[in-house]
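thread: overnight batch results

M.L. [08:02]
morning all. the overnight job finished for the chain we discussed friday. pasting input first so we're all looking at the same thing
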Amino acid sequence: MSSRRNKSRGVRVHKPLTKALLLPMDRASANEQSLAHHLALVACRSGHGNGHLVNELMRVVYLSWFLQRAGYGTCPPEQFKIAEYAVEATLAHAHKSGEWQLPAETIVDFEMLLALYDAQLASAPLHEVIAAEQKLRAFMTRRSSSPIPMST
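M.L. [08:03]
and the structure it wrote out:
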């Protein structure tokens, strides 16, 4: 009877996490994501990128930021900001010139963030990865300027 009362009051009952959600993402899925992101970086480094690939790199920046905030990683926030600004500059340049190439001086920052994201996918429980994806979706619907704060 009390559970019925809780439901009517809007109290959310959390289901226990399954074993699959408590473990990291399966290796094949993590490898598939990693390969796609690394190939996106190669294409955008060489000037063969496109809007989809640049957006995928931005997605990695934000997902790795959210996972780091959950306790999986120790990269300085400035590194995320450098990558974020590089994507924005690439998008602005592409709209003017049609050229989809990341600034050369930011490639190392992207490589480090991709390595971080690979490590996060290998170690963070799947429920944390899903939570990061939910945060990304929520951020995108709010259309805020950035989930990454300016460094102080």
